[in-house]
Design goal:
single chain; 105 residues; three-stranded antiparallel β-sheet; 3 strands
Length: 105
């Protein structure tokens, strides 16, 4: 089964729904459309301060899950900050890159 990742939060409209047999509810179409939810969308159900919270989840292919780890995302953030500050150099030619790797040993 693919890994699931929370989707970004959206501010939206509050609607009233009725709890039915077997704990089922119907999510209003306006909310489904706003969040682009379709049949078989995975939702995380949690309780926060006495409230039921449904969080849409994004499926991530198993071979891409590494990218979404906390460590990798932190490294991406740091790299982007360095790029934004101009603290990086342009791409290296293959020979220069290999020489740089040899210097690090």
């Amino acid at each position: 089964m693919p890994k699931l990742q929370e989707r970004p939060q959206d501010n939206g409209v509050a609607k009233h729904v009725r709890l039915r047999n077997k704990g089922q509810i119907t999510i209003p179409n306006e909310i489904l459309e706003q969040l682009e939810l379709t049949a078989n969308t995975n939702l995380k159900v949690t309780v926060v301060d006495g409230r039921i919270v449904l969080i849409p989840m994004i499926e991530i292919a198993k071979d891409q899950a590494w990218y979404w780890t906390e460590t990798w995302q932190q490294d991406e953030k740091e790299a982007q900050q360095e790029i934004d500050k101009g603290q990086t150099s342009g791409p290296l030619a293959v020979e220069d890159a290999l020489a740089w790797l040899d210097e690090e040993e």
